[in-house]
Write a structure and sequence with these properties.
about 30% strand; 6 helices; 3-stranded antiparallel beta sheet; Jelly Rolls; about 190 residues; 434 Repressor (Amino-terminal Domain); 2 domains; alpha+beta; 6-stranded antiparallel beta sheet; elongated
């Protein structure tokens, strides 16, 4: 099966790459993984198939997971393209998702919406350029370039650009992502 051989080649390449990146010899990885240097050499060169228990030991020794070793090589697009929502006055670049949080860059052109919202959790953002007007309940707070804000999202809140477009880098939990990044919701 070609797919299995391709995956094995990727795993072998990753094992060798991680070992070399750490500056380890085959002997050093062997000592850390409790495998013989000759076994590791044959695995790396493709002269031996790698068993699951060997892969687990090697991954652990290299500070990786089996998932990371077998993750498919994708030719996924590495460019993060903006999601434009002109009707909302927001353009979003989702930079990463995982472990219950989303990191996103947002370009905000709209003023603060009149409708303040609540959702469970906390929001955090830092202003990269411009000024953000943050409404928290009855308070209005101006957050300027190189300043950050962090607040409970159980307080009714909304934010928008003040005096021209602004860009922010934000970290949102699941509810914050749904509330602020979901185009169906008008945050």
């Amino acid at each position: 099966m070609k797919q299995d051989r391709d995956l094995e080649a990727v795993v072998r390449q990753r094992i060798r790459g991680l070992r070399v990146a750490r500056g380890w010899s085959l002997d050093e990885l062997a000592g850390r993984s409790l495998l013989s240097p000759s076994t590791l050499s044959r695995i790396e060169t493709g002269h031996r198939r790698i068993a699951l228990d060997q892969m687990a030991a090697i991954a652990r020794a290299l500070g990786a997971t089996i998932d990371q070793l077998v993750e498919p090589e994708g030719d996924d697009d590495v460019v993060i393209r903006p999601q434009q929502h002109p009707e909302r006055g927001i353009t979003t670049w989702v930079l990463s998702r995982g472990s219950g949080q989303t990191v996103a860059k947002m370009r905000i052109t709209r003023a603060v919406p009149a409708d303040l919202r609540v959702h469970p959790g906390r929001d955090w953002f830092t202003v990269l350029s411009g000024t953000i007007e943050l409404r928290l309940g009855e308070r209005t707070i101006m957050v300027e370039t190189n300043e950050a804000a962090e607040f409970s999202t159980m307080v009714p809140h909304a934010f928008g650009a003040h005096g021209g477009p602004a860009e922010v880098l934000c970290i949102l939990d699941h509810e914050g992502e749904r509330s602020h990044l979901d185009p169906e919701l008008k945050s």
